[in-house]
Design goal:
The protein is mainly α. The protein contains eleven helices and no strands.
Length: about 190
């Protein structure tokens, strides 16, 4: 019960009370992976990346088949610029649950950051195939395609992203996608 209450309080942004209940849950059941996971989320929101990493690692120790902890560790590695470690963590999450579009997307982001746009495109494609309205996956795939000078495909992905952003009411990102399309068109005209 403490874990559920702590998680609910975390979702409601009541971080102090959430921490109290999650700490109680862990004191009573230190091997409860979900409690470690929620404590990691709390610590991450508080800006305590090291503690969050340790909590997600403990969650993996006690619940190795839960992909979310692997995913969160990947995000921490990615934020620290440790892209090879991030890739491994995202791949671990995908190995547990292939239908995890966010893990595929962030795997792609890590590949882009390591100058591997071809491999990133595969990950972005999987993310957008799993979740067709995942606008950022289409957008990132478009940028990676443009980097490889596959301009027509890139524009198509960016337009798809723009359409999804518009449908979701996100005019700012729709505009950014349209600006990228214009940049690609300018490159094509200059050839």
């Amino acid at each position: 019960a403490y874990v559920n209450l702590g998680a609910a309080l975390l979702e409601g942004e009541n971080l102090d009370q959430s921490e109290t209940y999650l700490a109680r849950a862990l004191a009573l059941e230190p091997e409860l992976g979900i409690a470690h996971y929620n404590m990691g989320l709390l610590q991450k929101r508080q800006g305590n990346q090291t503690e969050a990493f340790d909590s997600f690692s403990a969650a993996i120790t006690h619940s190795p088949a839960a992909p979310e902890s692997h995913y969160q560790i990947g995000l921490i590695y990615q934020e620290q610029g440790q892209y090879a470690q991030a890739q491994q963590a995202f791949q671990n999450a995908i190995d547990i649950d292939f239908n995890y579009p966010e893990a595929h997307y962030n795997l792609g982001v890590s590949f882009v950051r390591q100058d591997s746009p071809e491999t990133a495109i595969i990950a972005f494609t999987r993310a957008s195939n799993l979740q067709p309205t995942f606008a950022h996956a289409h957008y990132a795939r478009g940028l990676a395609l443009a980097e490889l000078e596959r301009y027509e495909e890139a524009k198509e992905q960016l337009q798809t992203a723009s359409n999804i952003y518009i449908a979701k009411g996100d005019a700012r990102w729709a505009s950014i996608a349209q600006q990228q399309i214009s940049l690609i068109e300018n490159i094509q005209v200059g050839r």
